[in-house]
Amino acid sequence: MTRNVIIIGSGPAGLTAAIYAARANLKPLCIEGHMMDGMIPGGQLMITTEVENYPGFPEGITGPELMKHFRDQALRFGTEIITADVDRVDLSARPYKCYVGEDVYEANAVIVATGASARWLGLESEKLLQNRGVSACATCDGYFFREQDVCVVGGGDTAMEEALYLAGLCRSVTVIHRRKELRASKIMQERALKHPKISFLWDSVVEEVLDVAKGEVTGVRVKNIETGEVSVKECTGLFIAIGHIPSTKVFRDWLDTDELGYLVTKPDSTATKIDGVFACGDVQDHVFRQAVTAAGTGCMAAIEAERWLAANGLL
Ligand code: NDP
């Protein structure tokens, strides 16, 4: 059976694409992912507690609840959803093929919405305190730390951006970076370095997030890798900003990625270099990475897929 469109991924981008495709009567199949590249169905919002910046929810909503709304809305209009990881695709000719183990799903158009995942330090305490003070998104969670002391780990543009954003809300921001030099662009460095609320711990790595026993962040144990000195920096929030990993593993042989590993789409479009294959959400956007922008590009992908199918006489 050849379908009109298969959507791979079920975060805000994939499910918005599903809602639009279903309402356009394309009868989409959404393969929502099981543990794709470490991702979970519903995407990064599934590991977020409170979402206060998604328009339409003035009181806020939890990430999992918001994703349930997305999913229910996609189902309501007839999206077929299966929970599985696509482990291989064949985009050499239409119909395109998506493999889940021995099963193969075929469609004339494919929308890739596999997202990205935050890179973490890999500490057990970091994992246990996620959503209890440990976050990978200042825009999402910074507001909960108003007038408090927070730390940011990383030395790139994201870390500087997060530190500057947090400096507008928090009492103090300490950037912990493993080297003496920042990787961030000069302009971001300068803005962070001269900000009165931001200070830096150089040559330093986080060894432990405290305090797992209390179930909340009270500080971090930091080691200076030059001197070996270990100290505790008190804080109530810890923002990890050491990069993201786009989930592109199964597409790398077929689609172009940029120098950061994100899928390349045509300007002002979600079209990839393969006709009928579209990419939306965090797998192609390393700049905004917001649920609302992912949903926006998911909508674009569905509209572009529908127009492409119609223009090619495939509907
Ligand atoms: P980057 O890869 O640029 O930086 C990651 C930072 O995290 C580096 O400083 C790195 O240290 C540090 N790091 C990595 N792994 C670890 C670890 N295990 N422990 C401790 N520290 C670690 O990622 P970004 O997310 O900052 O940026 C990604 C891209 O997006 C960049 O090209 C950036 O320019 C762009 N961007 C641009 C923005 C803008 O222009 N406004 C905003 C945000 C991102 P080290 O330096 O030692 O390698």
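^ NDP complex. The radius of gyration is 21 Å. DSSP finds seven helices and 19 strands in the chain.
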